[in-house]
Amino acid sequence: MFSPEIFGERLRVLRTSRNLTLHQVGEVISFTKSAVGNLEHGRKKPSVDVIVDLANFFEVSTDYLLGLTDNPERR
Predict the structure, then answer these.
(1) Do 27 and 15 contact (CB within 8 A), yes or no?
(2) How far apart are CA 5 and CA 70, in angstroms?
(3) Is there a contact between 39 and 11 (Cβ–Cβ < 8 Å)?
């Protein structure tokens, strides 16, 4: 089951581990920095397109972002 908290935490960890700002990630998915912040805090649910775009950008699986697996590698 989708957990906005897990998604947000994983997004935050991926972003900060690459020293990216909320604004920089927002540019990738055409969001404002506050909208990305809302994703990270679990206040906004991402669309399928946003999940796929973020997974592609960070080179992780969508299942990892969604909290369905702890393995970030793509298959």
Answers:
(1) no
(2) 14
(3) yes
Model confidence at 75: pLDDT above 80:
no
| Token couple for 13 | 């960890």
Write the pLDDT tens digit of every residue in 1-54: 789 999 999 999 999 999 999 999 999 999 999 999 999 999 999 999 999 999
Q: Which two tokens stand for residue 5?
A: 């908290």
CA 24, 41, 44, 2 dihedral sign is positive
State how far the Cα of 16 lies from the Cα of 60, in Å rounded to an integer. 15
Burial of 65 (0-12, 13-18, 19+ CB in 10 A): buried
Structure tokens at 22: 């909320």
